[in-house]
Amino acid sequence: MKELDTERVRIVPLDAESLRLFIDDICKLQDVFHLEKSELLLDEEIKDAMKYRLSKVLKDSSNYYWHTNWLIISKELNSIIGGIMLKGLPDENGEVIIGYFTFPCYQGKGYMTETIKVLASWILDQPLVKRVIADTEKENKASHKVLEKNGARLYKETEDLYFWELSKKTMNLHIE
């Protein structure tokens, strides 16, 4: 697996070594990928999520792209603007769960809408996948808009979260 591209972003799955650098030394990761240096800091919640992703990648390295964080890199800026995680292989219902974040200085510019469109389309083209699932905190209106722009359908909620689904039908993708 190499990477996915849109007009404005590169979406690159991180192998175990690169994911470890993302957690421990973003400056070194920027060097490895020949990216512009920027002062990016992962908050503790994202760092914990990345450490969990790393444990999954190490257990199933041949399928790492299903368990890892994918870097979102601005082509124009040649810098990391966020990440999107796949949280495992398709389950018995054909579902793949994603989670994502954009560094604050890059929010509101459409990068995540573009990223989700391309990555969800790729996921839905894989065998055994029927739906892509994302959960969002109820107060995260920006994330709701990103999912809605991609055709996501709200299908469930808990006290704190909304659950969204993307499918070939909701995204208006060609259905075979």
UniProtKB/TrEMBL annotation:
InterPro entries on file: Acyl_CoA_acyltransferase, GNAT_dom, N-acetyltransferase
Keyword Transcription: no
Ranges where the N-acetyltransferase domain occurs: 9-176
A Pfam family reported for this protein in Swiss-Prot or TrEMBL: Acetyltransf_3
Signal peptide (UniProt feature, chain positions): none
SUPFAM superfamilies noted in UniProt: Acyl-CoA N-acyltransferases (Nat)
GO molecular function (one): acyltransferase activity, transferring groups other than amino-acyl groups
Entry keyword Transferase: yes
This protein's UniProt keywords: Transferase
Name of the featured protein: Alanine acetyltransferase
Naturally occurring in which organism (per UniProt): Rummeliibacillus stabekisii
